[in-house]
């Protein structure tokens, strides 16, 4: 039993594939039955999740040495708080259990929306050198009290100076920390700092930024 994909977020779906093999030299008849349940950190059905009715049993015949394959699509509600969906499949003949298996679909909480947006632009550029301006915006409706912005240059740039932030570079990774006078970015406000540097083969701009360890929207 395999899930594709094996992990989803609330509101997404996944497909379960069940494969059974007849290891005998005669055809095997059975009833195929599956049931499923959303599970969370506590007992009972997690808030926001439905009670899923079992799929009806159906007769199947697996030829000698052959296989039986069944696929089912499972979707989750956006408000479902479960951490996994457990599906159990059974093959029975009358009251005799021939085979059974189960598979967990991991459900991870949707990440919170970013609280910051970053704009990086080259103000000036020449052979071997550049000046860039970086603007951080607070977009979550709350102030940012103290900030450290981190990013990786996509080229071979080296920082030689800057303003409005304490800037350091290790390899391709750059960190910029607030000065004492611009540590707070008010809701819907911005903070801007500058970078001066050199490059040899490429001055391709960074494509991702984190602020205090959390990803930012790139503008």
What topology emerges from the helices and strands here?
Layout (H helix, E strand, L loop, with lengths): L1 E3 L2 E2 L4 E9 L6 E12 L15 E8 L4 E9 L8 E10 L2 E12 L8 E11 L2 E10 L5 E2 L2 E5 L5 E6 L2 E5 L2 E5 L6 E2 L4 E9 L10 E3 L2 E2 L1 E2 L1
Parallel strand pairs: 2-8, 9-20
Antiparallel strand pairs: 1-3, 3-6, 4-5, 4-7, 7-8, 9-10, 10-17, 11-16, 12-15, 12-18, 13-17, 14-15, 18-19
In brief, what are we looking at here?
The protein has 219 residues and is mainly β.
Please name the fourth-level CATH homologous superfamily of the largest domain. Immunoglobulins
What's the structural domain tally? 2
* CATH A-level architecture of the largest domain: Sandwich
Instruction: Give the terminus-to-terminus CA distance.
Output: 42 Å
Q: Over the alpha carbons, how many angstroms does the gyration radius reach? A: 28 Å
CATH class of the largest domain: Mainly Beta
State the order of secondary-structure elements, H for helix, E for strand. EEEEEEEEEEEEEEEEEEEE
- Strand arrangement across the biggest beta sheet: 2-8-7-4-5
Round the mean pLDDT to the nearest integer and report it. 95
Number of strands: 20
- Please name the CATH topology of the largest domain: Immunoglobulin-like
Q: What is the molecular shape?
A: elongated
Largest sheet, if any?
Answer: 5 strands, mixed
- Percentage beta strand: over 45%
Task: Show unreliable segments.
Answer: none
Helix content range of the residues, please?
under 10%
Number of helices: 0
Q: Structural class of the helix and strand makeup?
A: mainly beta
Pfam families: CBM_2
GO molecular function, one term: polysaccharide binding
Protein name: Cellulose binding domain-containing protein
Domain CBM2: 109-219
